[in-house]
Specification:
Elements lengths: L18 E5 L4 H11 L3 E6 L19 E5 L7 H11 L2 E4 L5 H5 L3 H7 L4 E6 L14 H7 L19 H26 L3 E6 H8 L1 H8 L19 E5 L5 E5 L3 H11 L14 H12 L4 H8 L6 E3 L10 H6 L2 E4 L2 E4 L23 H8 L21
Parallel strand pairs: 1-2, 1-4, 2-3, 4-5, 5-6
Antiparallel strand pairs: 7-8, 8-9, 10-11
Helix pairs in contact: 1-6, 2-4, 5-6, 5-7, 6-7
Length: 392
């Protein structure tokens, strides 16, 4: 921890001095720990011998940026003790095992709190710590399917659209875990008492749909795909193909934006169709035909500088070069890898990509020195595929 009154190191963010133990897993846990690391926390990732399934080459896994790594075999006789040594000195611990696994290993909440009553113990799972499915394997698509959110996505005459693993793993999982552990950290610092944070992807993803449930109850949302204002059912809120096979995104919801959109598209005669659902089919066809008449870049130039709420749909490789994102530094290059920069931004405690992806075990000596834990040789045993949760 930093000494009271000592300013954090420039570029290290508002969580400078906060110590985090991350028990290595897949998907939402590592991303949550990356976010804490981006915000300045000293994150020590406890990797397992042999790595994890589905993991990318460690040199390119930017979710491990701004972290340090040690390797611990939790099946070895001294494995749990090494984790408890870290937990004793940490503010936050994050794990993503199936319910009960950490307890069986001797590194569950009770074990850790016996050594450090102030510890915030963050648990990242898909189904949660209890309930009929708690012990079942799953992935992002499984979790969002049950919450009703997957069923909202896509065209009505096609299967639901899978939104990569952004909606469940990262929005409903990682971000809720981070909010939870930071809230619990605030409580721990005020009271001296830590607690367990149960961050289930099903809970977080369901919570994301709160506004939609309100609209559903009020009769303002139909419980089917592409039939509503914000799900592609509205012809002036969606995407359209251009002459070169690319796409433009349209979000001209308000009346003044809609009028500007029609003017630039050359469809002023459709002004009265905005609230007339019986004309939405005609409106969609006319808009689609107009967009097909020019390329994406030509339409981008037409809408440049307007309030029509129209933007080109860019690819992952195109996005960093967009003038607005480039001007803001939304993406950054570090170690030869183009990647999103830390977010959000802080006026007094700016963040930065300080280090590239942590290599498994590379920081054992430095962590032992800085955290004051006993230095031990790195173990090299079988990996722990039966222990880690099926996240992602």
């Amino acid at each position: 921890m930093t000494t009271a009154g000592t300013p954090p190191t420039a570029g290290h963010g508002p969580l400078s001095g906060v110590r985090v133990v991350e028990l290595a897993g897949l998907g939402p846990g590592p991303f949550a720990a990356m976010l804490l690391a981006d915000l300045g926390a000293d994150v020590v990732r406890v990797d397992r011998p042999g790595g994890t399934d589905l993991a990318v080459d460690p040199a390119y896994d930017v979710t491990n940026r701004n972290k340090r790594s040690i390797v611990v075999d939790l099946k070895a006789p001294d494995g749990p003790a090494r984790v408890l040594d870290l937990a004793e000195r940490a503010d936050i611990l994050i794990e993503g095992y199936r319910p009960g696994v950490a307890e069986r290993l001797g590194i569950g909440p009770a074990d850790c709190h016996a050594r450090n009553p102030r510890l915030v113990y963050g648990r990242m799972t898909g189904w949660g710590q209890d309930g009929p499915l708690a012990q079942r394997a799953g992935h992002d698509v499984s979790y969002i399917a049950l919450t009703g959110t997957l069923g909202m996505l896509g065209r009505p005459d096609e299967p639901p659209t899978v939104p990569a693993n952004l909606l469940g793993d990262y929005a409903g999982g990682s971000l809720y875990l981070v909010v939870g552990v930071l809230a619990a950290l605030h409580h721990a610092r005020a009271t001296g008492t830590g607690q367990v944070v149960d961050a289930a992807i099903v809970d977080g993803t369901a919570h994301l749909s709160t506004m939609i449930h309100g609209m559903l109850a009020a009769g303002g949302w139909q419980d089917r795909r592409a039939a509503n204002l914000l799900d592609g059912g509205c012809p002036y809120y969606g995407t359209y193909e251009t002459a070169d096979g690319r796409y433009m995104a349209v979000g001209a919801l308000e009346g003044k934006f809609y009028a500007e959109f029609l003017r630039l598209l050359g469809l002023d005669d459709l002004a009265s169709a905005r609230k007339d659902w019986t004309r939405w089919g005609e409106l969609r066809e006319r808009i689609a035909a107009a967009f097909k008449s020019r390329t994406r870049d030509e339409w981008t130039a037409v809408f440049e500088g307007s309030d029509a709420c129209v933007a080109p749909v860019l690819s992952l490789r195109e996005a960093p070069a967009h003038p607005h994102l480039a001007a803001r530094g939304t993406f950054t290059d570090h170690g030869g890898i183009t990647q999103p920069a830390p977010a959000p931004r802080f006026s007094a405690t700016p963040t930065a990509v300080r280090t590239g992806p942590a290599r498994p075990g590379a920081d054992a000596a430095a962590v032992a020195r800085d955290w004051g834990t006993p230095a031990r040789p790195t173990d090299d045993h079988d990996d722990l595929d039966d222990l880690v949760t099926d996240g992602g």
